[in-house]
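User: Can you write out an input/output pair for a complex, sequences first and structure second?

Assistant: Here is one pair. Inputs:
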Amino acid sequence: MSRENLMLQIHQIQDEMLVMGSLVEQATMKSIESLKKRDKKMAVEVYNADRKINEKRYAIENSVLILIATQQPLAHDLRLLAALLEVSAEIERMGDYAKGIAKVVVNLGDFDIPVPIKEIDQMATLALSMLHRALGAFIIEDGETAKSIPAEDDKVDEMYNKVQRLLVNLMIEKPQNIDHANLLMWVAHNLERMGDRVSNICERTIFVTTGELVEIESKKKEIKL
Amino acid sequence: MTNQTDKQWAIETQDLDIYYSDFRAVKNVSLKIEPKKITSIIGPSGCGKSTVLRSFNRMNDFIPGSRVTGGIFFQGQNIYDPRIDPVQVRQRIGMVFQKPNPFPKSIYENVAWGARINNYKENLNDLVEECLVKSALWGEVKDLLQRPALSLSGGQQQRLCIARALAVKPEIILMDEPCSALDPIATLKIEDLMRELSAQYTIIIVTHNMQQAGRASDFTAYFTMDTDRAGSMIEYGVTSQVFTNPTHKSTEDYISGRFG
């Protein structure tokens, strides 16, 4: 296979990865929409559509492995293909978070509880914006942008804390809310995890551009007693 | 005899230039080879890698008009010093060639030959066995020692040539594309053998096969040709690093198949 052909195949895998990313964006937005409207039918659609995202991930994995086996890529090519394996796994897990949110919507049923939808919506919007830009940076191998995105995760974390407080207050005010507020905690938790996954994608972009596998500075948080 | 550096390298070249008459084939190579490791030299055709390898045991002396400037130091001595006997250099620094080239004699005589002409005083049978064991051929030929060496398969012949090189007790073994005439199974056997031998010997291998350099060597030197057609060393480092994250774009382009 010529080098042009190898590049063509790598570009095709990258395209598939972008398609996968947009499926996850759609699934997340739709899951939040279903929460907003308390639309169980819509949530079931999101839940069942996750299979397509998983299939895309396996297809990407398969294509990458075939290229590694048949082309013995080295240096930048090898780093890029190894990163594609990681990044597709990260996106797939983000799809699982959207699926998890959809499941919460189903499990909430028609229970009457004031959902802090404005804050949840903000979290989702920011996490998806991070994802969108992180994938763009991955494709054009923009290490500087990749380095800057994870800092925004602090904002997602901040909103996560806010939603948690609101939900705890709901529980205190009305103990009958406990089960369902707990379900909503999972919604916020899943969105918070999305931000972390985006940071992992950014680390892979830096790996492709520099060859260094390093934890991004803003992620190096430690807890103190 | 003066030590050139504090560390004892297996071979150290300093500003090495190699000429064929007026043509400078290799320029400015300063390379330090780690002892008891496998170092591969890679690069496109015409980059001077075989020329450099052959200079390490003065094989280029046989090419009329070839000359060397700069130094190649082995155990602190410049091997191109006029006082140095090139035959002794070749005894300490052996060579295995691209195409297996056993003598048209028996398997036994091929291994015993070098020792015999050097008036080996100890038991020749033991030496032949030891070298054939080391070259991972003993099990296959122990009952066939008087058979013609040319009756062996290509891979066996190459291991016999390695046994022959070992018989004169070298410290360094140079290999010039030792597997290019072999099938993949025979190739892997030679690579396994190289790994075993590297516990005792320094191995330097020239290879066109990037996967072989990646699999089999600890260090990799990348050579390329300059605009004046002289070969020079562009990058030298730990193999795993050179193959995953090379420092120079030229190395990247070559190992990724962009040219060469």
